[in-house]
Amino acid sequence: MSVLTQTEIDRLATLPVPPGRLLIDGAWIEGSAAPMPVITPITGQQMTTIAAATEAEVAQAVAAARRAFDDGRWRKQPPAQRKAVLLRLADLIEHHANELAVLGVRDNGTEIGMALKAEPLSAAQTFRWYAEALDKLYGEIAPTADTVLALVHREPVGVVAAIVPWNFPLMIGAWKLAPALATGNSVVLKPAETASLTLLRLGELALEAGLPPGVLNIVTGTGATTGAALALSMDVDVLVFTGSGATGRRLMEYSARSNLKRVFLELGGKSPNIIFADAPDLAAAARAAAGGIFRNSGQVCVAGSRLLVEASVHDEVLHHLATVTRAMKQGNPLDLTTQIGAVHSEAQLARDLGFLSDATAQGGSLVLGGKRTLLETGGYYLEPTIITGVAPGHRLFQEEVFGPVLAVTPFSTEAEALHLANATDFGLASGLWTSNLSRAHRMIRGIRAGVVHVNTYGGTDITVPMGGVRQSGNGHDKSLHAFDKYTDLKTAWIQL
């Protein structure tokens, strides 16, 4: 990977993108159905097409994954050999990081400065981390009577189906692929139909790294056809998904209608970011709050979309927040100076605007933004938007927007802050700002969320788990805990 300059970005952005095909059993094949257009949110124009996998083609991919698993071409390789392949893949991702970052931005509109680190470089780190971890998973010897030897083995589950979203396809794809492959499983991957290009390129790199044919299969297409066929398959053992709650519910229903495959869901959130009057630095808290909701145009599952501010400092925090937000540059996400990129699609933009209309109709006050912008580009851009006076009963307080929209709600006491923080059905992430150590620990214990940031927002690492509670889903990506989704425990009870 060379230094990513604006000149290099501009060069990569002009490269033609070949039509996307399906990866099945190590071969790239044309889909039998009509291809789907790929629209870039930067200009609203078509840039290429991808295949739309049919039910029959999904079945072919699952069958290829099952054959690869059953004959042991991957799972029976010594851990050191699997490690070597995944390390080569990590190196290849890193080597092609600039290309992957620009391709991803053209596909989904994330600002390039964020995309390089969050997508290919993060994915390379994830594959490298799980490659190094895979030969450090030990079985157990149970404490039994002297006449018995009880061994607990960890074994790969078999065929894993992974369905990933459009906002960070490489990063989230790696969170699922790396531990699944590291433990010897075969995978059928379905990218989001509106952001498949970087994961298709990842498939090419995986074969180049030496991953055996059939161990990783990639089927693009719609959720209604391709995703449903994968979830209804009788030969998929585990399904992992990141996306909307509505889709997650359907996937669980499909599991019940088919083979009761285990389903692990990460379903987003409505994360509270709480600023107490005794925060160490109110201006810093406001800057972090702006970054926590407006980066990637708010299209981040852990986005701090609800800002809860102690009433005594509400106006001061709002002033800092508005000042920081006005200074953020919104524009072409392929410009290195851009801080807020595009909304992913025309449909997502329409949904965002619908939330704003409802918010003001329900009594919220518009402080900043609220309009579509940069219309001359033909792309999908929404001004960073701040709305105050948002009450718990308002739609904007309860539902995930997945756009650059911040709901601000005042509170008076710690107890009220905790109540408001937990007053939604979600429980993915959260943040709080205070100089009171005891308060921080009380809030950490009281907030019902998978992640609680203290005096920061958005900090994370591959070493810690990512997952939520309540309607934010189940199971965890990242860390050693992710291995639990992709391994079964087998007890060997041996009479001596």
Verbal overview:
The protein is built from 15 helices and 19 strands. The protein has a seven-stranded mixed beta sheet with strand order 14-15-16-13-12-17-18, sandwiched between helices. The longest helix has 22 residues, at 112-133. A hairpin with a 2-residue loop joins strand 1 (22-24) and strand 2. With 496 residues, it is α/β, with parallel strands linked by helices.
Q: Describe the biggest sheet? A: 7 strands, mixed
Distance between the termini: 57 Å
- For the record, the CATH architecture of the largest domain stands as 3-Layer(aba) Sandwich
DSSP strand tally: 19
Question: What is the tally of helical segments?
Answer: 15
Number of domains: 2
CATH topology of the largest domain: Aldehyde Dehydrogenase, Chain A, domain 1
What is the CATH superfamily label of the largest domain? Aldehyde Dehydrogenase, Chain A, domain 1
pLDDT averaged over residues: 97
Structural class: alpha/beta
Strand content: 15-25%
Rg on CA atoms, Å: 23 Å
- Identify the overall geometry: globular
Q: In percent, how helical is the residue content?
A: 25-40%
Instruction: Give the uncertain stretches in residue-range form.
Output: none
In CATH, what is the class of the largest domain? Alpha Beta
Q: Numbering strands along the chain, what is their spatial order in the largest sheet?
A: 14-15-16-13-12-17-18
